[in-house]
Structures are given as structure tokens and as C-alpha cells.
Amino acid sequence: MRNALITGAAARLGRAIARELHRDHRVIIHYRSSAGAAQQLVEELNSVRPDSAVAIQSELGSATDCERLAEQATDQWGGIDVLVNNASAFFPTPVGSADEQQWDQLIGSNLKAPFFLSQALAKTLSRASNGGGAAASSIWRTFTPSAPCRDTRSTVPPRPAW
Prior knowledge:
The chain is an alpha/beta fold. It is 41% helix and 21% strand.
């Protein structure tokens, strides 16, 4: 059975992705602060198929945090076949009033963490047959470690013209 790590999987979109992937994967539910929601989802999924879901708490603010999460996730079932980078900070940041701390938090969760987590899992993802990852955000890209990105916007609703 294939193994999936979904960041930010305790709530909203990440929770839905975890439920969908659980149909034919073991899933690792990453969370930062939503322990109760993560544990409830693990119990729900394990009631369908025992020992098929676990939760791991981790910050994603540094490369070290991402490496630690990658190691814990890989140790769980011997490798990761699918990575979904879903965790994200989101709060209003109007142009003209955003400060450097807000910038760092947004870039950290939406760019830095997915990059360093993907990098930390690159070897296990590349060993996986058809393994790869996805960015579940406004980026709408998928990748496999040894292939170029391919645009998947045609599979999502059209974006508004701004």
C-alpha cells in the first residue's frame, strides 16, 4: 500500500484530501496546532481500515522542521509515495500595510516549507513508482521529482480575472 503525507490535513481542504487519498493509501495527517481535529480524523480513518492513518505534529517554519517531519513520516511506514503540500498561513495582508513579519510568515508557509519538505522527501518520492507531490494552494501545480512541472489548471474552476 502506498503512503501519503498531507500537510495541514486536520481541517478544511487538507482534511478532504486526506479522506480521498485514504481510499487507497495510508495517510499521515500533519498538523501544527489542531491536535483534536487531527486525532478525530485519524480515528475516523482507522475505523474504516485499521492502522492506516496517523497524525504528526510539526512546525514548518524552518528547513530543520521540514527535515524532522520528513524523517518522522518516512519512519512511520518506510517511505512516502505522495506528498501534498497543503499547509498554509492565510490572513488579510492588504498591499501597503503588510509588514515584514507577515511577509515572512506567508512566504514561509506557502513557499519555503513546501520547498524544503519536498527536498527532504525527494529520495523517497523518486523511488516511489509514479510518486510525486502536489501543491494544494493558488499555485495549482503538480510534480514528480524527476519530471518538469505540468500545469493542471484545466482541472480546476477558472480563476477570476483581477
